[in-house]
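Example record for the data management plan.
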Amino acid sequence: MSGNSPLGPNVDQIDKQIDQWWERWRGRPSVDRLFYTASNLGDFSLIWHIVGGLRALPPGRRPGSSIRFSALMGFESLLVNQGVKRFFGRVRPAEAADNPTSHQLRQPVTSSFPSGHASAAFCASAFLSRRSSLGSFWHLIAGLLACSRIHVRLHHASDVAAGAGIGMILGKLAERLLPKD
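Corresponding structural encoding:
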């Protein structure tokens, strides 16, 4: 596992310990299926754009909300993947090709820090949770998607934690700034 955390050598050590702990879950077919699927659904915020699109369908029919949500996810992606990540050159713990061939993953081209999957997931969950009885569900999905990046070794745990924090902040800001449904 490669280090070079922008947060220092102590964080590298924590990342290494978490990766070693996580190793017990890798290679278990049902766990792998869950996390590889989640990781792939997080590519390009696919899962979140699907959720946003579903919000525009009957019976709720909230097309304005759907458009605002997709715009938020696009802004989050642009800010994190083309903005924040450019300040860091952190190497990923592994390459997509290092994973079992039965679980095809897209090889990211940006820095490992912070995790864009985690940022998008927590931005979406914070925003979707507003005025929703499904708030805990959205946070659970976000956590699953974010942790999938540790499982598939495309992010260090600290990348995921930083991405989750950034996403939560962006989602909460959007919750306050964008009109309620």
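Summary line stored alongside the record: The radius of gyration is 16 Å.
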